[in-house]
Amino acid sequence: METNALLYTHEELEAEYAKLQEVAEKKGASTWQMRVKQQTPHCKFGEQGICCRICSMGPCRITAKAPRGICGCDAHGIVARNYLRFTLGGTAAHSDHGREICHTLHETSADGNYKVKDPEKLLKLAKEWEVETEGRDIYDVAHDVAYIGLMEYGKPFGTQRFLKRATKERQETWEKAEIAPRAIDREVATGMHMTHMGCSSLPEALIRQAFRSGLSDGWGGSMMGTEFSDILFGTPMPMDTEANLGCIDKDYVNIVVHGHDPSLSEMIVEYSQDKEMVELAKAAGAKGINIVGVCCTSNEVAMRHGIPMAGNFLQQENCVLTGAIEAVVVDVQCIFPALGPLSKCFHTKFITTSLIAQMPESNFVQFNVENAGENAKAIVKEAVENFKNRDQESVYIPQLKKKATVGYSCEGIVSRLDTVTNSQVDVTGTWQPLVDCITSGVLRGAVAMVGCNNPKVRADYAHVELMKKLLKNDIILVLSGCSAQAAAKAGLMCKEAKELCGDGLKRVCELADIPPVLHMGSCVDISRMMLLVNEVAKQWGIDVPQLPVVGCAPEWMSEKAVSIGNYVVSTGIDTFLGVIPYTEGSDVVTDLLTNGVKDWVGASFTFETDIEKLGDAMIETIEAKRTALGI
Ligand code: XCC
Ligand code: SF4
After folding, report:
1. 120-156: per-residue pLDDT in tens?
2. Which fold has domain 47-233?
3. Which of 414, 490, 505, 600 could form a disulfide with 501 if both were Cys (CB 3.0 to 4.6 A apart)?
């Protein structure tokens, strides 16, 4: 599609996606758009969180006539238990991803499949964790650090090591609220225990555990996932890439990498550049091998290698529907089981690789540290050999593509922001320029926009419209997960997008040479955002809840998002959700989450499905925080 406009309109994008729906219909394939129709209206009990099936006396459903389950539990207990279990699923998933990365680091060696790419970051962490580094082999240090990291999952005593990175006030707040997280697995197990039949039904206790479990994710498992990924694969620095379906190239062997764990995608990227594989692709009649990403795996390889981002969560089926994908290679999380049957309508191979995510109608190639190179090569080869089976005549690739600059890790942001203000610029890089921009009012504040797509919201619409509104108001955005890809696909992640900003933010973008929405990575990388706000608060000499910063997940869907929401709020950042969790069946739980928890941690949730109102509420909160600071 030819367009000179800065951004695609939603209509332009949707018109192209609609053509892929026609392809699906012709092929007799099933897509999420079709299945949403079959699933609506949703079950009201489930939606409100008032269905309980944790024991076999049930399932019990709360109504006006039946206000208690058979055991006597009321709606508040049931909603809070369900909320906690939802959180635990998210904590477990995120943190187990982190654990996989710890294991990968533990297996590194100078001549192995995986190596240490950022020794500086490793040595910094070793120092923080009091691991001896003097005169030692870097891999011995790596193994010690990884071992300590692994122990964070199950250690019998103490709280998470990374908590010490937070402001002093945060650490005290967590202690006082009794939510300082202990071993990660313990918080998940304790939560499961609490929600067993006949244990906790007191909303306050259950929500407290939900926060504690969330914190073990954000300041434990996820943070280790991020740190160790940087050590293994390099700390992201600003890098150019492209986004949307137009990144799929008709002339190339196209491989989609999808999921979360960079251990797999890094290897696939490496072998796609292998001379032997490229020659093989050329011999098969292709120009080469083209890797594109979906979901958080995409974020991981985009920020480290500039691999283009084909799309986010609700775009995964669209990729296959182009008819130009030789293989979809997945690891864990956010992978539609629909991809198996959908791939069968085309020549596409759907390759699962993890024992954690096994699906029908897929080719399973088990992937682990020992066989990583070998198996990545085999997968790439399988894709290349599949090129001949593609029906080029019926390929339809929407020509949608936008430039994007990605890879703003904390290190990446500091390096850029240092060029902005004239105040006390520290050559080693500090957060002072950012503090100066905010106190002077050039920037009004910041929003961390994160999270998924959800068919309950017009896909990407809430992300993109909210971003546009905030930019106009001189509010800078830091993004991760599928929100980041929504921005990139629309065109918001290119530097020219500064034209959409208020004068202050536009100036910052020009001086620092950054786009107004900064790509901070995948969902585990929300831990980067937690460190960012805590560092800024320290530099400023205030605590996190005082900062004119809020979090937002306008289209979230996964359990991980709730785990994240809990740790973001616990970190002292007011968080705005555009999809309401299954809590409406209890006014007590709703009031606790949107109000009461402020007494514990200094921040709370706002649930609002009207996007305009959600945006206004964020701006009001940011301005109120500025007023309170007297700036
Ligand atoms: Fe999944 Fe991380 Fe959500 Fe996207 S944003 S749909 S969780 S890929 Ni994490
Ligand atoms: Fe019903 Fe209570 Fe059993 Fe839940 S725990 S299913 S409310 S009897």
Report:
1. 999 999 999 999 999 999 999 999 999 999 999 999 9
2. Substrate Binding Domain Of Dnak; Chain:A; Domain 2 (1.20.1270)
3. 505
